[in-house]
Prior knowledge:
5-stranded antiparallel β-sheet; 19 helices; disordered C terminus; 3 domains; 12 strands; alpha+beta
Amino acid sequence: MKYIDNQPNPKNRKKMEENNPPKLKSEEQVDLTLDKEVGKNLEKFKAFLKDSSDVVIREFSLGTQSIPCALVYVDGLVNIAVINEQILKPMMYQIALLETSLNQPIQPDKIFEVVKLHALTVGEVKEVKTLDDAFLRVLSGEVAVIIDGFDKILIANARGWPQRGIQEPPSETVIRGPREGFTETLRVNTALLRRKIKDPNLVIKTVQVGRRGKTDVAYAYIKGVASQELVEEVERRLNQIDVDIFLDSSQIEQYIQDNYLTYFPQIEVTERPDKTVASLAEGRVAILMDNSPFALIVPATFYQFFQSAEDYYERWILASIIRLLRWSGAILASLTPALYVAIVSFHPGFIPTNLVISIAATRATVPFPAFVEALLMEITFELLREAGARLPRAIGQTIGIVGGLIVGDAAVRAGITSPIMVIVVAITAIASFIIPSYSAAMAIRLLRFPFIVLAATFGIYGVMLGFIILNVHLVTLKSFGVSYMTPQAPIRYQDWKDFLIRLPSQIMMRRPTSTYPVDIDRRNQDPVKEETQ
């Protein structure tokens, strides 16, 4: 399996610039090494954070010897109750009580380990030995515990920022199936995956992207199912990203995709944990980003964008019929206006005589050719659709429905367009809504514009030429080394069980071969173990 490198290393860039973020002015003047004196370490923290009003520095004394200590944390990112009850209180009182009960003070060279092992009662405590690591931890919502006499810092996990609760994903609603969706908190999302896959082979690794943002990005896969080459390729592309700040996983998608010159999505995006888990079970890799509720699934093929999570919760016959409707909707959404323009302008003999007479009668008062008429109506519909999407939900739905009815009726009454053209635009719009993936639906929806131009220029032959060019383009696309049109090109009959239709679950006992899974059989999670028995 060959993976395509679409992100070559920038030329004429020094290794130091690649590996280290640009220095701030204060960083050029402050020594970044930790000192054994609390005061000097706090001066270094203040050199960077003195202008930030949300940074809290709490100085206090430890034990009967009054050893100077300090806490550094960001207000709003931490749980104050945890700091007060599990960090400050044990250090300020329990250490002194311990020394009183022992009738002797704790030796200064052992106070660091005593605090780490006996005083701090939080679940996660780490040591850092550089100021850079301490800054990163503090700005990520953890607490830096500085103790005088040591050139290292304790980091206590007290994260507790406000977060959105788990809700049904608005972009992927289902009638039957789980109602939970990802949130903007990374650890909540990884926990949703763990709840559904209680297998120690589920691996979740975290890397940081963004020179300044340092956003946590986790990629998950099932060891023994996902190809190791695919996992290494995902890790390589993530580590190769060199941008200052990321705000959403869609930005990561644009940096790791194979071909940025096409508007067809090459990475599947979902808000549903159940859909993500199903993809992991097929040998794919899921990428989740902190501050984003959308998971990226790689590799992705064209047919995946026509699948819905609900397909696997309903009986296979019903799911197959609905899936065929989606494929039909994609054809209607992309080709219906072009076919109308081609037939009306060049090939009226393709339709019955009575229908030709009816169309001619309705177009008798229209001052524009079919091409201009179709273009005006399609652009008007796109304007209404975009306006409805950007307005508040209640107003947007009203604008979309009422605006479409009023504009369509007024255009027909004014003689600007024919009733048959309004019907064609309506069919195109309805057909585009049936595609589950928003990115794929938008790409297919926009295809009708070049098809309309080709139909107005060459008639039905232009539509055929455009369809051939489209297929050639799709066949050349790849997603992390996997052919975009698999299992059509190349043909993989084994994967046709879940392609145009969905066969019964009892028959689909093998994973898709397009992802090159290590364990192809769903019933045998540990082939090595079974061979030895």
